[in-house]
User: Fold this.
Amino acid sequence: MADYLVTGVAGFIGSSIARALVARHNKVRGVDNFSTGKRQNLVGLESIELIEGDLNDPGLAERACREIKFIFHEAALPSVPRSIEDPVGSNRANVDATVKLLDAARKSRVRRVIYAGSSAYGNSPSLPKKEDMLPAPLSPYAVSKLTGEHYMAAFCRVYGLETVTLRYFNVFGPHQDPTSQYSGVLAIFISKMLCNQTPTIYGDGEQSRDFTYTDNVVVGNLLAASADASKVAGRVFNTLNETVQILRSLTSYAGDVSHGPERPGDVKHSLADIAEAKSQFGYEPSVLFGEGLTKTVDWYRSQL
Ligand code: UD2
Assistant:
């Protein structure tokens, strides 16, 4: 019987966490509705117990939580623009499913739930972003992720279920889907530049993101499962324009970059303060930005 449940196991982050757990000889159950998850992300994970379905399906969350001790809740519909197109779908996937999972978890006496939170909660002019800053969600996506975070806290207070929220900051790395209009910017830019296609920068390109390599997120999750509850996030401060310059040299792209209007709901700057995560459970990014970017470009090149 599995001890660990990974929701969104066929996703880019969920499958990376599952791979790390399996490598440590843990018994893993995964759940995915394959709305954005990919079967090819499960290659090498044949040993896990896979439940195919949606956490909103009747009885599915209960089945997924049975006998489980730790849950990594990665299932979500990411993307700010997707939530602007479809706020109801975003809420169903990110809020409804989360409440159902938490309710099943407390009934099954799960020990701890580690939740994929987001850095999307505001456009605060002061950086870095600290855990105690007042959230100011700009998009339905940000509201949905923040609501999940509040549910985590409430289930901890009311039912004693240990919950940890890790606020992710723009995760990138191998296996991230580059094909959707909602894909992360690095996945889109790397695959375009490797194929000599023109990437488009929305706005002036001076927006910045604290791009976090997947391995660091995986380590953060494993630490959060074994240590006192707190918050974690990755690090490295880069504007989009600077990142495009680095990508030009890594991909040998010599073409143009086109420019489009700034995206609605876009956060201008994003930078994580990881001091709290470091002091509470020893989180430190082990793969720095340049190394992560090189590994990611190599992976996309190998997929061509
Ligand atoms: C990321 C996360 C989101 C949430 C948010 C928190 C992804 C895919 N999304 O959204 O889940 O956690 O961070 O703030 O990781 N851009 C371009 N050209 C493109 C695509 C994007 O210029 O072709 C810009 C976009 O306008 C934005 C930046 O690149 O300013 C990053 O966009 P993103 O979609 O990768 O991620 P973000 O920060 O909106």
